[in-house]
Amino acid sequence: MSLEKRRVMGDSRTDSGEKGLKRNVDESPFRKRTLSLQSGFKFLLLFCILLFIVSFTLSDTCLSLWDSSKLNFHKLLNQTSQLYLLHPILRVRPKLILETTTVSTTTAPTTAPPGIQYHLAYPRNYHFIMDNPEVCKYQTPFLVLMVPVEPNNIAARDAIRQTWGKEKEVQGQVVLTLFMLGSSGGANVEQQEKLKQENEKHHDLIQSDFRDTYRNLTIKSMVIMDWLATHCPTAAFGMKIDSDMFLNIDNLVIMLLEPSVPKLNYLTGHLMWNRPVIRSEDSRWYVPEELYPEPKYPTYALGMGYVFSNDLPEKFVEASKSIKYFNIEDAYIGVCMKKMGLKPSSPPKPSQFRTYNFKYDRCTFSKVITYILGSPQQLINFWTDLKRPEPPC
Ligand SMILES: *[C@@H]1O[C@H](CO)[C@@H](O)[C@H](O)[C@H]1NC(C)=O
Ligand SMILES: *[C@@H]1O[C@H](CO)[C@@H](O)[C@H](O)[C@H]1NC(C)=O
């Protein structure tokens, strides 16, 4: 048995007793020197191990290992979550999170002024691959409805085209409805061809080359802003409205025509105040502190449908150069407004911007502006009923 082993055993037996102390005193000078040499060596070894651990932790390999195990855990937690089934890029999430896009001359029309970082949400990092650049050339819309929608969600687009999207003139004002799509990835040639045909028929699709995913919705909203700023700057108002919404377009235009509604720096909808940022990683609305460190969001209008004066889109595009990307698109717009020294306004009648509705009531639907619906068929049914000639109430 080695000296070392015996010493440990002896110590453990007489750990806290007087005996151990006495034994130490009894030890020979030779033994003491070996021990001090040994502990010196042990210290060195420990130091080396520590150094190794520290450098390993800081290395990329460890970060991505740690991250992919976290992702796998999430996959288990939410098998239905599309997010993690999508793209290998998610396996290098730390890079994605910390990524800011430095603009080179090939990726953007402008060069970055020194000191400015163009973040992921800066829409001029992306390019339109399908467009209707003429739609605002020969008319000046009062209101442009911009509907973010997934490329394959034809049902939602068709329902909107048959309902509120088909209204070209409301209360004597020109209204335009357009759909904003991201890209579903290079491999989908057939789908892309179908989209092209759909656009040739309806002339209402705009597609950008960012990947169309749930986590990228902020990019989509900012690309909407970019399109309005560059392709339709003469419109008076814009609206971002989700594809699963009921929209009483008459009431909306009536509201926007009210003299009390400002023509500049105006954004309204269903307002959210003092909303805490969700830090639970299982949530669909999870935002890590690296992206948005503050505990609460500034006031923002719920993403289901917010209306704004059309001077704002250009200002949002500018603001997004210096605001880090995070995946809650409506709160991101709120952060842009705060940065610009602005705040969303309450609508003249706040109760008109409603969220969920599970049962249809003709009288109520005739008074609101928005409702979230369950399906495209529901939209068609409710709309058809609402448009019957009899008075609704
Ligand atoms: C799983 O993820 C999807 C997409 O993010 C989300 O809609 C759904 O609510 C999640 N389910 C659970 C049980 O968290
Ligand atoms: C968001 O879009 C960018 C640009 O197309 C893409 O590189 C990235 O993978 C997308 N992120 C997610 C989470 O889908």
Q: What order do the SSEs take from the amino end to the carboxyl end, as H and E?
A: HHHHHEEEEHEEHEHEEHEEEEHHEHEH
The number of helical elements comes to: 13
Q: What's the Cα radius of gyration?
A: 30 Å
- CATH architecture verdict of the domain at 123-350: Alpha-Beta Complex
- The number of distinct β-strands equals 15
The profile of the biggest β sheet is:
8 strands, mixed
- The helix content, as a percent range, equals 25-40%
The kinds of small molecule bound in this structure are: 2-acetamido-2-deoxy-beta-D-glucopyranose
Helix/strand/pairing class, anyone?
Answer: alpha/beta
**How large is the share of residues in beta strands?**
15-25%
Highest CATH level, the class of the domain at 123-350 = Alpha Beta
Shape: globular
Distance between the termini: 97 Å
Family: Belongs to the glycosyltransferase 31 family.
Pfam family, one: Galactosyl_T
GO molecular function, one term: N-acetyl-beta-D-glucosaminide beta-(1,3)-galactosyltransferase activity
GO biological process, one term: lipid metabolic process
Summarize the structure in words.
By secondary structure, the chain is α/β, with parallel strands linked by helices. The chain is globular, with a radius of gyration of 30 Å. It has helices at residues 3-13, 18-26, 29-58, 60-77, 93-98, 154-162, 189-202, 217-231, 249-257, 312-319, 329-339, 362-365, 376-386; strands at residues 100-101, 118-119, 128-130, 143-148, 169-170, 173-183, 205-211, 237-241, 245-247, 267-268, 271-272, 300-301, 305-309, 353-356, 370-372. Strands 3, 4, 5, 6, 7, 8, 10 and 13 form an eight-stranded mixed sheet that branches. The protein has a three-stranded mixed sheet with strand order 9-15-14, with helices on one face. The chain has 13 helices and 15 strands. Residues 1-30 and 56-110 have low confidence and may be disordered. The protein has a domain at 123-350: Spore Coat Polysaccharide Biosynthesis Protein SpsA, Chain A, CATH 3.90.550. α6 packs parallel to α13 (376-386) and α8 (217-231) packs across α10 (312-319). The protein is 39% helix and 15% strand. The termini are far apart. It is found in: Golgi apparatus membrane. InterPro entries: Glyco_trans_31.
